[in-house]
Design goal:
- It is a single chain.
- By secondary structure, the chain is α/β, with parallel strands linked by helices.
- Strand 8, helix 7 and strand 9 form a beta-alpha-beta unit.
- Helix 4 packs across helix 6 and helix 6 packs parallel to helix 7.
- The chain is globular and about 50 Å long.
- The termini are close together.
- The structure holds (4S)-2,6-dioxohexahydropyrimidine-4-carboxylic acid (DOR).
- The site of (4S)-2,6-dioxohexahydropyrimidine-4-carboxylic acid has 10 residues, from loops.
């Protein structure tokens, strides 16, 4: 049995309002609670998106209702950077700020430099972070898995690494100009790790996250199934190793899940046709404990930093309650047993330890 502070996930998608058939706040909260999370930060790609106070209120009311049923998990919504996440017009940051943990257009990169620059200037004044999904649309070229060996071998359209790191590079220059607190979502490439390592060395207020799937899988693990499809995609082993180095040396601050539930139908259309996104809340700790702590790659203390302490620091949260995991008894990952409505995970059938006991 081990006892650690309850975990924090800076990046989840609970689909209410708008897409309750994929996940409700209640089912998302139950998944988070079963997995050992006390705090989760929800992305605003909802319908309506959280781009006005009025729209945000719809979500806040739903959160309040769900919180009456499921205790012990606090939901922290992000607000949109741009109206409708379309990238053209900034939201009213001042009005949204009292209700949100930070600003993100997750699911979409903010393409226009002048818009991101303005967003950072305002965030700097308000003391709120920009939580950035970095992706240059012009470099996507219809891709849906990594632009690597697997895509070439099986005739798929690839997403190049540059689509991610180019935008991180641009944004880091804007952070230099503005001093805005900047957190990069789901990094997946070696270039991203290097850019952030250098930015940290030069003292910029930058943090970042990756997710267990980028640390454990590569494009060569892909199968022709929707449960292997997410954005950013699984990259190469070199990228994976750079990410592992990044968690070991502190370049990467947090393990987030990018918990992104979709319906069975939406995930049943292979690699090209399925929606982007996999669920992660109920597998993150067991995977990280089994394949990183138990294998001696990182210590348990380091894992607690990555899954609890650093996110608490970034978002100014308190210490959190203590939770206990049984790390002796092995079990097999079975999505049929998830609390989440989303069942798509590339980790089905993996043997792990690390079940929450209290
Ligand atoms: O795989 C993903 N799914 N990546 C994103 O950026 C968005 C997310 C979603 O909302 O489904």
């Amino acid at each position: 049995m081990i006892e650690i502070p309850a975990m924090v996930d800076l990046h989840v998608h609970f689909r209410e309002p708008g897409f309750e058939y994929k996940e409700t706040i209640e089912t998302g909260m139950r998944a988070a609670k079963t997995a050992g999370y006390s705090d989760v930060f929800t992305m605003p790609n909802l319908r309506p998106a959280q781009d006005t106070v009025e729209h945000l209120m719809v979500q806040l009311e739903a959160i309040e209702k769900a919180s009456e049923k499921t205790k012990g998990v606090t939901i922290h919504p992000y607000g949109c950077i741009t109206m409708g996440q379309k990238g053209d017009q900034l939201t009213d940051f001042e009005a949204l700020a009292p209700y949100v943990a930070g600003f993100s257009d997750d699911g979409h990169g903010v393409q226009r430099t002048e818009i991101m620059l303005e967003a950072m200037k305002i965030c700097r004044k308000l003391g709120k972070p920009i939580v950035a999904h970095c992706e240059v649309n012009d470099l996507l070229r219809g891709g849906y898995i990594h632009d690597g060996d697997y895509a070439k071998m099986f005739g798929h359209k690839g997403i190049c690494s540059e689509s991610e790191w180019r935008m991180i590079e641009r944004d880091l220059n804007l952070v230099k100009l503005t001093g805005c607190q900047y957190h990069v979502c789901h990094i997946s490439t070696k270039e991203s790790v290097n850019l952030i390592r250098e930015a940290k060395k030069s003292g910029l207020p930058v943090t970042c996250e990756t997710a267990p799937h980028y640390l454990l899988l590569t494009d060569m693990d892909l199968r022709e199934e929707g449960r292997f499809k997410m954005n950013p995609p699984l990259r190469t082993d070199e990228d994976r190793m750079a990410l592992v180095e990044g968690i070991v040396d502190g370049t990467i601050d947090c393990i987030a899940t990018d918990h992104a539930p979709h319906s069975a139908e939406e995930k049943a259309k292979g690699l090209s046709g399925s929606s982007f996104g996999i669920v992660g809340l109920e597998t993150a700790f067991p995977l990280m404990y089994t394949y990183f702590v138990n294998k001696g790659i990182i210590t348990l203390e380091k894992l607690v930093e990555l899954m609890s302490y650093n996110a608490r620091k970034i978002m100014h949260l308190g210490k959190g309650r203590m939770i206990k995991f049984d790390v002796e008894k092995e079990f097999v990952i079975d999505p049929g047993k998830f609390e989440s409505k989303g069942k798509a995970t590339p980790f089905t059938g993996w043997k792990v330890v690390g079940r929450l006991v209290e």
